[in-house]
Amino acid sequence: MIITSIADHILSPIGQTSEETFRNLRAGDTAMRVHAFPGVPEAVCASLLDEEALRPLYEALSLKERFTTFEKRLILSISSAAARTDIDLASDRVLFILSTTKGNISLLDQAEGFPPERVHLGVSARRIARHFGNERMPIVVSNACISGVCALLTGMRALREGWCDYAVVAGTDVQSRFIITGFQSFKALSQAPCRPFDAARDGLNPGEAAATVILTRAETAPWEWVRGAVRNDANHISGPSRTGEGSFQALEAALQGVDRRELAFVNVHGTATAYNDEMESIALHRAGLDAVPVTGLKGVFGHTMGAAGILECILSMRALEAGVVLPTAGYDTCGVSYPLQISNVERPAKGNAFVKVISGFGGCNAALTVRKR
């Protein structure tokens, strides 16, 4: 019995489906622009969803109650993924798993007519599940930047344990004054499109997207979600381990039993901050992956937070199907201790699997291996 994916969906600034997003990504499209946020003194370079462009899609959902922007984006992505299946989302054998770092945090600034309890993640998750007629208690995964991969691993484990027949894993975050000023306080933002692993990197870009993967069990399937792991090195509230300890341990666990010659590429976190990229290079070196091609996507999408791990896994699957290693936008000159196999141009992929690695505040790290059968 294997865990497989039967449908997915991406809502991004460069596409309203997984296929459109992947096609435009390969064409070199980007929505990275300078944006002004209310209450934030400095403009920010970010990749953001256009709410006006999404309005017709929301209207087509025929929502029977009022939802926040955060909730509508999740409902839209889940609906779009489920439309490709014959699943009854109201079934008690369907488990909703939602990934987010901040949810409706913007309601703390302006209530917009929503009751105060709407800011709680569990309240939003239950309303989203019940929109689909599902009365089962959903699971919310909010574990900093690794939330998306954590949510996927939670779905895989729920299926292996028989808690459900289908796991609907969806993630998003809406950039807000709270989030932007938080990153600014760490001096972690770049005023230009970010440059992962590059010698001239100077910070990350915020991003927005919504992404969904529907997982199930199968005897045979074209995709196998092999294994993954979460490891916490408890190094620092915001700084990654200087030795890559947590990321290395997560990688080792995710690759257990996997022939590393199968790996077509590693999809990295690649935030373009000084310490994250350096830590990832050390972890990949320690794991013996120096010769495996590396690809990072935040130079195009920015840091999409709760959507990041899901979005980047979907696009990695599309890349493996197309037989390519996607370029790392913004990369030019190696700026980390170990010269990984990074390029800023698309190249052919050799292998039938990839490993996704991701790291976040609080010393949390995760890795997940996916194989094309």
Could you walk me through the main structural features you see in this protein, from its secondary elements to its overall organization?
The protein is globular, with a radius of gyration of 19 Å. Strand 2 and strand 3 form a beta hairpin. The strands form 4 sheets. Strands 8-15-14-9-10-12 form a 6-stranded mixed β-sheet, with helices on both faces. Helix 1 crosses helix 10. The protein has 2 domains: 217 residues, Peroxisomal Thiolase, Chain A, domain 1; 150 residues, Thiolase/Chalcone synthase (Peroxisomal Thiolase, Chain A, domain 1, 3-Layer(aba) Sandwich), CATH 3.40.47. The mean pLDDT is 96. By secondary structure, it is of the alpha/beta class. 29% of the residues lie in helices and 23% in strands. The longest helix is centred in the last third of the chain and has 15 residues. The protein contains 10 helices and 15 strands.
Summarize the structure.
With 373 residues, the protein is of the alpha/beta class. The protein has helices at residues 18-26, 51-60, 69-82, 121-131, 147-160, 177-185, 245-254, 274-286, 298-301, 308-322; strands at residues 2-11, 32-35, 44-47, 94-99, 139-141, 166-172, 210-218, 223-232, 263-267, 293-295, 324-325, 341-342, 347-348, 353-360, 364-372.
